[in-house]
Each structure stands twice: as C-alpha cells, then as structure tokens.
TrEMBL record:
Keywords: Amino-acid transport, ATP-binding, Nucleotide-binding, Transport. It is a peripheral membrane protein. Belongs to the ABC transporter superfamily. One of its GO terms (cellular component) is plasma membrane. It comes from Vibrio aquaticus. Residues 2-239 form the ABC transporter domain. This is Amino acid ABC transporter ATP-binding protein. CDD domains: ABC_HisP_GlnQ. Its main location: membrane. It is found in: Cell inner membrane. One of its GO terms (molecular function) is ATP hydrolysis activity. InterPro entries: AAA+_ATPase, ABC_ATPase_HisP-typ, ABC_transporter-like_ATP-bd, ABC_transporter-like_CS, MetN_ABC_transporter-like, P-loop_NTPase.
Amino acid sequence: MIKLDNIHKRFGDTEVLKGIDLEIDQGEIIVIIGSSGTGKSTLLRTVNFLESADKGTITIDDVRVDAEKHTKSEVLALRRKTGFVFQSYALFAHMTARQNIAEGLITVRGWKKSDALARAQAILDDIGLGDKGDSYPAALSGGQQQRVGIGRAMALQPELLLFDEPTSALDPEWVGEVLNLMKDLATKHQTMLVVTHEMQFAKEVADRVIFMAEGNIVEQGSPQDIFGNPQDPRLKKFLRQVGAE
C-alpha cells in the first residue's frame, strides 16, 4: 500500500501543492496529466523526498515519513522502496551503461561489485540493450539512454517506480521504444506513478488517470471515464487543447 496524506508544498509565495491525498494499490499504474505548472512533477518528487513537502505524510508499506519531522534514516528507507526515472536521463557520463545500472545496487544495497554488474547485464539483456553494456551515455541514443535510466531504477526492484515525463526530452523517433518498455513493465504488474503528456499511453496502460490543476487533484478515474466522459470544465478544456477528446 502506498499512501500520500495531505501533501502541501510551497515555493516562496506560490502554493504548488494544496493538500494532495492519494492511495496506490500494489501493481496499480497511475498516470498524472495536466497542464504545465500544475504541480505534477513536484508531487512526484515529494514522494521520495527529492523535494521535501512542507506538510503531510508519505507511507510505502511499513515506512511512514512525516514531512514536518523526519530523520535521514526514514527518508533513506523510503527512497529504498522507490525508483525514479528522470526526464533528462541523469546518467553518469563517466560510467558505462552496465556500471550506471549497477551503481545503485553497490551504493544503496551494498551488493558486491561483481554481482551488481552481473545483475546489470541481465537487465540490459531484458530491456533489449544487451550489446550496449560497455557503451558510455554519449554513444547511446536518447531512447537508449532513457531505457538505461529505467533499467537503473528497475535494478533496485522498488515497490514504486516514479516516472517524471520520461519521454519529454526525447526526439520523436525514440519515444516509442521507451513507452514500449514501460508497457512491458506494466504487464509485469510493476507499481508505477507516471507524469506524462503522452495521452495515448495513458489511455492504453493506466489503471487510473489523475488530472491535476492549480495544485489539486481535480478529477480521477479509469481512462474510459477521464477521456470518454470528463466532468470538470478544466479537464474538458485540457483534453481539447491536447487533442485527446
């Protein structure tokens, strides 16, 4: 069980998150949509304390962290239950693809280097990049780099995978290969919370779609409900703007 309770976040005078409540079941795939600047990515980053919320609690399984009073060890325990996929890949340029995937297993989980590298190679094989283990990020396409980024998050076998607009930095020709990998993860019942502008992915893969506006969850439901029978005028306007009616 994953639960966000009354999450608030402010940047200066701007209240970005206004008391978000969200529960995610094991194996559930939730896609968050909405216009830029509505707090989607900030919400994602508060889940594993890349951004500290000002108020609220985050619970993943047996780990519960209070944003207002937490310890480093509590935050570390929470992060160990999550994997984060960034929009800009965030790979280590001086490490090969295999080393990038192995790094978290070594530093976070304390694996022996040889075991971590073997696990990393198995993941590369699984994501269709088995021949790229010795390649550095500069030698990989954008799509390949993002797949390595997903592989790195997968290596830790997290309870929850967080995706922050994973295709937004990609050239159009590489978007499909990343979305296909995410679809494959979905078939394996990996719990995912995804911020994306890819409406077709939301329609095809999400168990639940959440529409955010002005720092709030305005409407949520199945893809059929959100795209086929939207209720809130802001959601209707957004869907018209992105051509997803």
